[in-house]
Amino acid sequence: MTTSELDAWLYGSRVARFTARDAGRAAPRVDLTWDRDALARWGYGSRVLSHLLPMDPDHAPPPARVTAWLDGLMPEGRVRDHMAMDAGVDPEDTVGFFGAYGGDTVGALQFVPVGAAPRAAAVGGRPLEADDIATLLHASVARAGGQGRSQRLTSSLPGMEPKIGLVRDGEHWWRASPEQPTTHILKVARAADSPTADLVDTEAAALDLARRIGLTTIDAHVETFADMRCIVVSRYDRVPDDGAPGGLRRIHQEDAAQALGINTRDPERKFQHGRALPSLVRIAQVLRDDGARPDPLLALTALNLAVGNTDAHAKNISLLRREDGTVALAPAYDVSMHLHHSHASRIFAMDVAGERDMDAITGKHLVAESVSWGLPRRRAVRVVARTLDDLRAALGEIDRDAHPGVPAEAWRTVVERAEVLRRSVD
């Protein structure tokens, strides 16, 4: 049954109501109405839900903005289409989609029927064995490829790579109920004969480096369940909390494409590639407008360039929107090494001081880019130099044997890039 109206809850309060209009059309309009109690809690103009959607009881946000923002919470490509078909809704019907999958989204927002409150989540069933997890991973691959719908998903995870969300409780894995927050994301490795078969390996290694230099809180490792190899990543938007239902507290977030109002149904729109949007300067401005320093964005960009992560697009940069209204750049995620592959694109996802050729971008470009954000030059030099110095130290300390799937050429490429970028800073 198609849902035309949903209440959205955030940090224990009903924050807004989303209403689908013209549901029979190709692109239904979605209206947002703020809850008066949420306005009293967070205040007029609060951006606790989104930078794009400040709370204003007198002026409803344009439906196109609301729809673009909701789209950013949804999976991409065929995964979205097949999840919608499983639920009996049109893939373009965002409200209907979250009527089926809105109990656990990325961040802290929960969608419930009008007048209801989120139900307390509890682990049910039995712990999953390796074969059970492999079956779920196989189903995610089939779904991404437009085949089979044997395993109903319970959580909405953006992105195009086949993935699932699970709950880790001690030594056991559990499948989440529709309302239960998952603790980990499992993303399937590409086939062994794929030219990018090592993508999950280099992601785990790059996140290990990012953690060592203070740019992420994520734990990541590569694991095989039966015949399915994947990267297992802890969720930074889920925090252990004994006082919260199920022992987990949700932390709200939005990605930069959502914050900027970019509808990414066309997956190319999350890359800048010479366009005005998205851009690092506009993401930095969002951070500034919301009371946060953009320095971590500069450090993250330096890391992405050094490890050769061409995929650092607007959906792979996110902002945390905390319960107290403060904002911060989210921990680094989806960071991988790409440039050791001869076939890899060498175009960075974002322009840096007008340059997007990764072989041409230098430390001076990084400094010039951040000066355009309003950072003092000396501060920018200090951030870039410290990030690259810390990365070089981490490259010397990291246990490479813990990442056996990362080829020597990948490590060599990152070491060389970090050195070249560092020499060109001053």
TrEMBL record:
Keyword Ubl conjugation on entry: no
Report the domain of life of the source organism. Bacteria
- What does the UniProt keyword field contain? Kinase, Transferase
Any idea which GO molecular function terms this record carries? Answer: kinase activity
One Pfam family, please name it: Couple_hipA
HipA N-terminal subdomain domain spans which residues? 6-111
Return the protein name.
Answer: Serine/threonine-protein kinase HipA
Matching PANTHER family, A to Z? SERINE/THREONINE-PROTEIN KINASE TOXIN HIPA, SERINE_THREONINE-PROTEIN KINASE TOXIN HIPA
Respond yes or no to whether keyword Kinase is given for this record.
yes
Start and end residues of each HipA-like C-terminal domain = 155-393
Family, as annotated: Belongs to the HipA Ser/Thr kinase family.
What NCBIfam families does the record tag this protein with?
couple_hipA
